[in-house]
Amino acid sequence: MDVVPSLDPGSPRVRFGAEMRRLREAAQLSQAAVASRLGCTQTQVSRLEKATRTPSRSDAERLDRLFGEAGGVSFTRLYQRIIAQPGGPVWFRSWAEEIEPTARVIRSWDPLLIPGLLQTESYARHIFTLEPRATPEAVEERVEARMRRQRILDRDDPPLVLVLFDAGVLRRRVGGPEVMREQLDRVLEVARHPSVSIQVVDPECLPGLAGAFMIAELPDGQPLTVHADSPAQGHVTADREHAAAIQERYEAIRLWAYPERVSLRMVEEVRREWT
């Protein structure tokens, strides 16, 4: 049985799903019937209603045509509220709101920084503060969004999270010694979680220089979905060839990873150096 992750009942995405289900049932339509009108599958309609899938603009427009803004509900306006939510760029929201919360397994690689799912507030705030044209308001919104992402680790049914990062990350100064000590304490704390595995990768690993990425395994036989970083805009895709290439690169990087016990000992040793 699928377990639906905890969601904010006041969020526009939850409202979108609740209104969609209410109007569908009032019109005595099955999920399959609505799926045929949206041009998607019944499973996708179910996920829209459960708010585990982020609707597209075309979903909203087709629902408005189907229900005619019954009861004053405009799915297009709800969609606009969803994409207008603060806390990160629009291109990342499909990953943070739809992919990550429903993933069964998340594989992560980062050659430059502690991965976002493990970052402390202070570490994340220093990173975002140095972004070009960063305003204090935008920085705080992005920090809050990053902390919200980490709630998946506290669920009763957390995903299996397999983290790889370059050894140089441990000594890359972000914010100063106090911030680094706190951050490495956080890494050691999260590593005790039974669903999290953390491995440090030898800095001579050349396959990892192509950049950071994440791979999500989703339920119900859905295809692998990947998120690959770039300086301006990340890329989220379920294209089979692209996902297979990223997974192959992950395995090549993993061959350069130290065993978990050795990795955590390295973290502890470097943590003591940050004095």
TrEMBL record:
SMART domains named among the record's database cross-references: HTH_XRE
SUPFAM superfamilies assigned: lambda repressor-like DNA-binding domains
Matches recorded under InterPro entries: Cro/C1-type_HTH (IPR001387), DUF5753 (IPR043917), Lambda_DNA-bd_dom_sf (IPR010982)
Residues in the signal sequence: none
Gene3D superfamilies xref list: lambda repressor-like DNA-binding domains
Domain spans labelled HTH cro/C1-type: 20-73
Superkingdom field: Bacteria
UniProt xrefs under Pfam families: DUF5753 (PF19054), HTH_31 (PF13560)
GO molecular function: DNA binding
Record's protein name: Transcriptional regulator with XRE-family HTH domain
Species whose genome carries this gene: Thermocatellispora tengchongensis
